[in-house]
Amino acid sequence: MSHLSRATIHLDRLDHNMRLLQELVGERPLWPAIKANAYGHDALIVARHLVATGYDTLCVAHAPEAVELREAGVGARLLLLSATLPEHAGAIVAHALEPVVCTGEMLEALSREAQRAGREVALHLKVDTGMGRIGIRPDEVPAMLDRCDALPALRVRGLMSHFPRADEEDKSFSLEQIGCFGDVTKQAAGRGIEHFHMANSAAIFDLPDSHLGAARPGISIYGLRPSDGIANPRVGELLPVLEWKTRITFLKEVPAGTGLSYGHIFRAEQPLLVATLPVGYGDGLSRRLSNDHDVLVHGVRCRQLGRITMDQSQVDVSALRGRVALGDEVVLIGRQGSEEVTADELAKKLGTINYEIVTAISARVPRIAVGAGGEGR
Fold this sequence. Notes:
This protein is α/β, with parallel strands linked by helices. It has helices at residues 11-25, 35-40, 43-52, 63-71, 89-94, 104-117, 141-150, 172-187, 201-206, 343-350, 354-359, and strands at residues 6-10, 57-60, 77-80, 98-101, 121-126, 154-160, 195-199, 214-215, 242-247, 250-254, 259-260, 266-267, 272-277, 294-297, 300-305, 313-316, 329-336, 339-341, 367-370. The protein has 2 domains: 31-222, TIM Barrel (Alpha-Beta Barrel); 242-370, Lyase, Ornithine Decarboxylase, Chain A, domain 1 (Beta Barrel), CATH 2.40.37.10. The chain is elongated and about 80 Å long. The relative contact order is 0.14.
């Protein structure tokens, strides 16, 4: 028995987005980011499909995410994008993960664990060219590479950086970063490094000089724009991979003056037909959207009424009297008829970004894969 709400994952749209991104980077490999449960789309569904279609390197954030995928049988290279601590070195070695490293302590721990296991660890050194989050300074790269060479069982597979402002219209800072990282790659020439990489989704579209030896798309593989600041018109070809739907569980006529939900922040000014939905902030529908968003019923925009509660919310379906019934489909994100509610629409109402909308959809909402042979997976 499943929850009455579901997130449908359209694998054919995922394929479309990957083809578009591949066209933009040419022959360079794409290393898709499936961190944070594939941005809310279900990491296992997405990983299995990407591997089946030929992608051999996937990016996650933390070691436990990678271990879960590995234990589920995902055989791709798994690149850990976030810094971690030496206590995770054993798991990284045991599961053949590829960590991003920027401290000597982590290098030493990885070397010890790799020697103990009789294995080699492939790693990626992170260079901070302007993100200001993790990474070594550009001038520290030669010494860090020397340190890696001096420690047994370590192989530097990649040298990488990241953009903090590639999604802005003004690309001047990002261009400076590309120049800085280019200088770093020259310092590292002849050191046996396979891949230099820094391009994220925004850079794939707008900064072709950053594509280098590999690119790491994230939000774009799910069909969502990195921002409104992308200049490349091809960003409009992305197709949203996720739709979020629920069903009507209760209908009632309410007279004028009736207050709805906690606090009665909505009170009917006229008689209304109100539908109750089995979805609330416990499912990832933000309480801050209360009284401030629409859903789709029979292709008609219907306003949400009153406070969104943990497990339920209510909508005005008065315009559908005589047509609406218990069990009818309700679209929270997606298209129905000629109308569409997007993650971007909800994000703008909340003053946030589409990333947060989809990653916030909770685990109790089942993800159901369809398309490209994925029906019912």
